[in-house]
Amino acid sequence: MGKEKHNKNPSGKALNLLRTRLTNPNFIFKTFSDSPDSNYSKLKFIISSSVTEACNNSILLLGPRGSGKVAVLELVLSDLLQQYPEVISVIRLNGLLHSDDNCAIKEIARQLCMEHQLLFSKVASFDDNSQFVVAMLRECGLAHKTIIFVLDEFDLFAQGKQRLLYSLLDAMQSVTSQAVVIGVSCRLDVDQLLEKRVRSRFSHRKLLFLPASREDTERFLEHILSLPMDSTLPQKYTVEFNERLKNILADERFKEVINTCSSFNSTIGYLVKFLFQAVSYMDLDVGFLSLENFKTAASSIQRQPKLECIRDCSVLELYLLVCMKRLEVKEQTSYNFNSIMTEYKSIHASFQTSDYYARNVCLRAFEHLILRELISFTDNKANNQSVEYRSIKLLISPVELDQALKSYRSCPAILLKLMDR
After folding, report:
1. What tens digit of pLDDT does each residue of 103-146 get?
2. How many angstroms separate the Cα of 21 from the Cα of each of 18, 193, 223, 236?
3. Buried b or exposed e, range 339-351, using 16+ CB within 10 angstroms
4. Which stretches make up the ATPase AAA-type core domain (predicted)?
5. What pLDDT score was predicted for residue 4?
6. Mean pLDDT along residues 363-367
7. 93 pLDDT more than 70
8. Strands 392-394 and 375-377, how do they pair?
9. Which sequence spans correspond to the domains of the chain?
C-alpha cells in the first residue's frame, strides 16, 4: 500500500533529491569542472604539477563571496588526496583566526605535528616554530612529500609586518622544499598589499572567479534541476518533470527572473540559495516545479529592508533621493544639502512641478532620510559643522531606488521620468 502511494506521488522524493544536490558543493561545481578552461582544471593542473615535478608554487584565488573559490579548491584537494594519498599534506589557516604572525606559525606547527604524529610544544617561541616549519619543509621535500598551505581571507595575512608570508615563501626558495601556498581572498587587489620582499617571492599566478556566462548558467540550471533517468523515481514522472522544467527554462518570464536575481548578486552561491528556495516552494500535491515557485523565491530572496524603508517615505523625501542620484550621475563626487536644494530647484524650474516645498520643510525631510539611514554623512568628524554644509552620500544603489519608485503607490510620474534619463 505504501509503495503504491509513493509511486502515485513521488514528489517528496524528488524534492529531497533536489535539496540534497543544492547542499552538495561537489555536485554544484561538477558542471563547471568539465572544461579544460575552468578554474577547477587550471588549479588542479598547477597543484598536481607541483606534486609530480617536485617544485614549489604559489597562487591566489580571487573573487566575491559566494563565487565558489573555497568550494572549487576543496573539490581539487579532495581529488588530489585520493590520487596521491601518501604524498600530500594540507595545512589550513584563516586570516580571521590566524592573522597574528605568532598565532599563525604556531597553528602551522601544530597541524604539522598532528599530521606526522609528533609532539607539539605550546610554549615554543615564534623563532622555534619558524625553524621547525623550515625543517619540516626540508624533510618533506627529501621524502618527496608536498605541503599545501591554504590561507583563507588572505588579505588579512597581508596586514602588519607579513612575517608569516615572508617566512613561508622564503623557506620555499630552498631547493629541497616542496610546497604550494594558496591564498583565497575577496580583494582583487590583494597582491598590491604585499611588501616588496614578499611580492618578489610570490609567483603572481591568479585565478579569477567571475560570474558565469548565460550559457553556463543555463547548463547549470538544467544540471541541478533535471531528475536523473536512472533513479528509483517512476520513469513516467521523471520524463514529465524534466519536460515541464525545460518549458520553464525556455520561458522568457523565467529568464527575466534569473536576470533580476543576477543584477542583485551574480555569484553561484546566491543562485544556489535562490534555487533552494524555489524548489522548497514546489507544491507536493501537484508534484512539479512551476514558474510561480521561482517568482515567489525571487521576491522572497530579494527582500530589501531599504526598499521597504523607501516605500514609507514622503513624496518630498523621494524627490531628495532622486536629486542625489542625479548629482551622482553627473559625477559630482562631493555634495551637501545645499547642492541637493539647487538640483531640486532646477527640476521645479524645468518641469513646473506641483510638489515644491520651502527650504525648512526640505531640511526636515533631509534629516528624516538620515535617521532612516538611506543617506549618511561622508565624514563623521565634522560634527561641529552645520548639517546643510556637511558632505553626504546615498546608501542605496540606483537599481534599488528605481525599484522602490516603481513599487511606490503614489509616486509622481516625473520622478520615474527623471530616473530613466
Report:
1. 888 999 999 899 888 888 888 888 888 888 888 888 888 888 89
2. 5, 38, 10, 22
3. bbbebbeebbeee
4. 59-205
5. 41
6. 93
7. yes
8. antiparallel
9. 34-208, 213-302, 307-420
Distance CA 177, CA 168 (A): 11
204 Rama sector, left if φ>0, alpha if ψ -120 to 50, beta otherwise? left
Question: CA 297 to CA 292: how far, in whole Å?
Answer: 8
pLDDT tens-place string over residues 153-198: 999 988 877 888 888 888 888 767 888 999 999 998 888 888 888 8
pTM of the model: 0.69
Structure-block grid coordinates of residue 379: 565624514
Assigned superfamily of 34-208: P-loop containing nucleotide triphosphate hydrolases (3.40.50.300)
Give the strand pairing for 392-394 and 88-94: unpaired
Long-range contacts of residues 344-347, Cβ cutoff 8 Å, at least 24 apart: 344/319, 344/320, 347/319, 347/323, 347/414, 347/418
**Residue recorded with cell 543584477:** 263
How many Å apart are CA 368 and CA 391, to the nearest integer?
Answer: 16
Contacts of 293 (CB under 8 A, 6+ apart): 278, 279, 281, 282
Q: Count CB atoms within 10 A of the CB of residue 353.
A: 14
Q: Contact 80/48 with Cβ under 8 angstroms? A: yes
